[in-house]
Amino acid sequence: MVGTLFNRFTLGLGVGYVLGARAGRERYEQIMSWWDRVTNAPAVQRAAEQGRELVGQAADRAQGFVGSKLGSGQSIREVMTAGVETVRPTDPISEAAAKMRQQDVGALVVVDDTEGVCGIVTDRDIAIRGVAEGLQPTSTIADVISREVTTLSPDDTVDHAVRLMRDRSIRRLPVVVEGKPVGIVSIGDLAIERDRASALADISAAPANR
């Protein structure tokens, strides 16, 4: 009795499996046939081609965005502030401070009698080396100047400027041609160029307090 029931159950299970497998295979063949018809339709192929074009365009835009963030190949000429204000070592500290206020800047390039760059003076130099040391407003810029100045060429890259500022812990670099100043680039200029959403870029781009 038990053996008979087992044999019938096994037979039923086998028949069901075969029928199910056949139905599944037929369903699979129907789906694949439908898929072939859909994918070979002209409208679908056009849509796929347009999709590939859109992906390619998006990739190009992303590459351009990354390149602009990294500043790859971008020259200092494109980001520097041209027409830099200058002073001489013999000028009084008060004159340098007045020029900084008038020009709304925090640094001035110092030039010698041949108009060649011989240093840089910043508002911090005046405060730390001048006021804090008890110097008078009539004291000369030579008393507070930073003479070991690092310069750039207009054709140098933004990447090079970033490396110099990082390695030498400086915030401003005069731009020179044949030893004469043609501009200046600051860490704020680079922040605006590299990442306009950064806090430093916001501060650098904001109007100065007077």
Characterize the structure shown.
The protein has helices at residues 2-39, 42-70, 93-103, 123-131, 158-168, 187-194, 199-205, and strands spanning 81-82, 86-87, 107-111, 117-122, 172-177, 180-186. The protein is α+β, with helices and mostly antiparallel strands. Helix 6 crosses helix 7. A hairpin with a 5-residue loop joins strand 3 and strand 4 (117-122). It starts with a helix and ends in a 5-residue tail after the last helix.
Short characterization:
This protein has seven helices and six strands, in the order H-H-E-E-H-E-E-H-H-E-E-H-H. It is of the alpha+beta class and 210 residues long.
Can you give keywords for this protein?
7 helices, 13% strand, 210 residues, 54% helix, disordered C terminus, three-stranded antiparallel β-sheet, alpha+beta
- The low-confidence parts are 5-19, 58-67, 196-210
- Give me the number of helical elements: 7
Q: Describe the largest sheet.
A: 3 strands, antiparallel
Q: Choose one word for the global shape.
A: elongated
Return the structural class: alpha+beta
N-to-C terminal Cα separation, in Å? 106 Å
Strand order, biggest sheet? Answer: 1-6-5
The pLDDT mean sits at: 74
The SSE string, one letter per element, is: HHEEHEEHHEEHH
Compile the SSE list and pairings.
Blueprint: H1 2-39, H2 42-70, E1 81-82, E2 86-87, H3 93-103, E3 107-111, E4 117-122, H4 123-131, H5 158-168, E5 172-177, E6 180-186, H6 187-194, H7 199-205
Parallel strand pairs: 2-3
Antiparallel strand pairs: 1-6, 3-4, 5-6
